[in-house]
Amino acid sequence: MIQFEHMKKSYGVGADAHEVLHDVDFTIHDGEVFGILGSSGAGKSTLVRTINLLERPTGGRILIDGVDISNATGKELKALRAKIGMIFQNFNLFQQRTVLRNITFPLELAGKPKAQRVARAERLLKLVGLEEYADRYPSQLSGGQQQRVAIARALANEPKIMLCDEATSALDSTTTVQILDLLRRINRELGVTLVVITHSLSVARNICDRVAMIDGGNIVEMGETAELFANPKSDILKALIASAEEQNGRDEDEDGTPVAPAAGAAENEEAR
Ligand SMILES: Nc1ncnc2c1ncn2[C@@H]1O[C@H](COP(=O)(O)OP(=O)(O)OP(=O)(O)O)[C@@H](O)[C@H]1O
Ligand SMILES: [Mg+2]
């Protein structure tokens, strides 16, 4: 369980201080796929990066499983980060390491013996469907394959929580669906809580149990995905839904219109 209690985040100090998250107060439950939706600059990444303290809150608290982590340092911080996996839009793999050695990296940091590291990495490669690719380098993989490696690496320390910052934004729609399927399996089969940042309504619809809409550093609404999208309250979510519908309409005009059969084709068919 991740609890934000009146959490705030400012960047800069003194006269330059600039608050980008204001009074964030909500809970993400164990086993949920929780979506954070909002436009660019809304504060999505900042919010999610406070969960593993890549950004430290400047007010309020964050509790994970009831423990206040807001001021964690040293060993406590290292242990916290080990239990929270993270994946990014641009995969962030180590280019000089093979696929296998990307996945064993967090296990090296955790001081696991080599045989155990390799065995675990091989199991994870199988889970993400890349067992043939252990000795390749990231540059020899497609974007979707690189994201699978990043997912395997994020799972190395058996995290309870995985943070996904625009994990499918650099991928085409078919690959996006495959990666979302993999993430859903990880949620269901391994019980990992997923926090999913996205700009995309269709990604949120596809995978999220609940969604929070964030605008200008405030959570403006939150709810079960289908219910929220059926009854949006905020202008920003209404506008996002309207623009997605307009886009869908355009896509249908371009590729969805059935091609009319050549004149007389049906009659010819019958005549034969
Ligand atoms: N390290 C930083 N120093 C100062 N300001 C920052 C820093 N990181 C983010 N900000 C500011 O905080 C606000 C929220 O940024 P954030 O990256 O969280 O937005 P986002 O919703 O993730 O946007 P995007 O969809 O473009 O990734 C923005 O105004 C941004 O300029
Ligand atoms: Mg961001």
Automatic annotation (TrEMBL):
Q: Which CDD domains does this one have?
A: ABC_MetN_methionine_transporter (cd03258)
Q: What InterPro entries would the database entry show?
A: AAA+_ATPase (IPR003593), ABC_transporter-like_ATP-bd (IPR003439), ABC_transporter-like_CS (IPR017871), MetN_ABC (IPR041701), MetN_ABC_transporter-like (IPR050086), P-loop_NTPase (IPR027417)
Q: Which Gene3D superfamilies match?
A: P-loop containing nucleotide triphosphate hydrolases (3.40.50.300)
- The protein's superkingdom reads Bacteria
Q: Which GO terms describe its biological process?
A: amino acid transport
Q: Name one GO cellular component term.
A: plasma membrane
Question: Mind telling me which PROSITE patterns this protein's record contains?
Answer: ABC_TRANSPORTER_1 (PS00211), ABC_TRANSPORTER_2 (PS50893)
Homology family? Belongs to the ABC transporter superfamily.
Q: What's the name of the protein?
A: ABC transporter ATP-binding protein
